[in-house]
Amino acid sequence: MTFLEVRNFGKSFTSHQLGSTRQAVENINFDLDKGQFIGIIGKSGSGKSTILKSIYRTYLPDEGSIYFDSKRFGFIDLFKASERQMIYLRKHEIGYVSQFLNVMPRTTARHLVEQALMEMGAVKETAAIRAEQALTHFDLDPQLWDTFPNTFSGGEKLRLNIAIATVKEPRLLLLDEPTASLDQQSKVKVREVIEKLKASGTTLIGIFHDIEFMENLCDKVFDMKNKSCELVHGG
Fold this sequence. Notes:
CATH topology: Rossmann fold
Radius of gyration: 18 Å
Shape: globular
Number of domains: 1
């Protein structure tokens, strides 16, 4: 059964200062079954991130529809979902990882991960244990666990961001260049978590410039250049 269906999606941006409108993406079509992983490839500026942000509804789309098989709301068109519905979906069903960390500046790294787990129903004691496991997995120095992330390096912020999103084991996980500023060892840690989530049934959409990272990980690849979606053998 189809888990996510993108149909005739298009998005443009208007610059009121310049008095012009630019078409970012148009005529995007692909679908995913539960537990599949699609990688989106294309040159910078081709609209890859626009697709992910529109699924997450950070951007409001102009054309088409994106249907998502929500556990709570059924097969829902995310473009027409209410703000209340989207807040619920972001909190409980759809995760998003970008290159940047956007969190409350006066909240510790440990508390951010614990909070993510408790949002999914974990009791405090369980959340504390699993948070430490996640922070350890992503090689965040224990001395940083009880400090504020606004003092972290770019790589440390990114690893924390991935930890926060993945501990929730979302039904759909959107990955926007999650390994952009990571060293090889950290990339391996990210891949291990992605493989584990995929095996447990999480559906994923990812953007990676590192083609080697995607090898044997994706079931499908969507090419922004020719707007084609192809099955990947061995994904």
